Amino acid sequence: xxxxxxxxLPAGKRGTxxxxxxxxxxxxxxxxxxxxxxxxxxxxxxxxNGTIRWEGKQPSRKDVRDLxxxxxxxxxxxxxxxxxxxxxxTKQPRTTTPAEVEPEELVADGVTVTIxxxxxxxxxxxxxxxxxxxxxxxxxxxxxLEDLPIEVTDxxxxxxxxxxxxxxxxxxxxxxxxxxxxxxxxxxxRVTAKPKxxxxxxxxxxxxxxxxxxxxxxxxGLRKTLMGGLPGSAAWRTPPKEADTKExxxxxxxxxxxxxxDPYTSLTPGAEGTINHVDDLGTxxxxxxxxxxxxxxxxxxxxxxx
Length: 306
Known about the structure:
Elements: E1 4-5, H1 15-25, E2 30-33, E3 38-41, E4 44-46, E5 52-54, H2 61-73, H3 81-90, E6 111-116, H4 122-143, E7 151-152, E8 156-162, H5 168-187, H6 201-211, H7 220-227, H8 242-245, H9 247-250, E9 254-259, E10 272-278, E11 284-288, E12 295-296, E13 302-305
Antiparallel strand pairs: 1-5, 2-3, 3-4, 4-5, 6-8, 7-8, 9-10, 9-13, 10-11, 11-12
Helix pairs in contact: 1-2, 2-7, 4-5, 5-7
């Protein structure tokens, strides 16, 4: 089977695909120009409509799985998703239709997480309650929950948050989430018990999950479960101003970094580079003078156009 990620995107909407391929292969995209107007990223080719194919050696299952995870976080699943998932499981082409796939078995009893009362100090318990108050509306919206009760006895602390049948993915995500929140409550010095009205819940949930430690490909499924039902964009808190992200006005401009929200970059404030393109999510991609390829997100990263 020749692996392809099939899309039928309008012109100018494949930037997210190219960006994620650059992250997967840790290399810069090459624009091939006329007559194909395709991009090449490592061994992958991105057609004008967004379809991804591989020249020569086919991708490994790990590459396909990782790319599906990256694209899924941006809701850019390919049209042939069922085919790709079947191939990942069997290494064979799929012969059934999506309607014939067995539905995911439900966890009939819902989810209740119970821990010994002795594992939480009184202060940690109060911080956990404050954290649930602050992030409760977000969690309820993500998993369609009516309430987030915390039942405390002399022996146990219980969180019976899902009282209906749910999928294994939902059960796993909620169990891991509660565990991470309990860890934060034990370690934090102070938690503000005040929920905020958010205009971009998906971005807020993404930041919360990363703060809890759900970073990396091993947590992609969990992030997808907890972010997938929320409105908004995971790419930025507020959409950048149109004038700040028009490719025609930015490409080739020099830019100076003032501050970045990326904790892993080697760049420091004052670094300079040249803008090479702006993708359809508004991310400004820069060729930095020190060789870094950090992209800047308007509204999150601070920069000055030179």
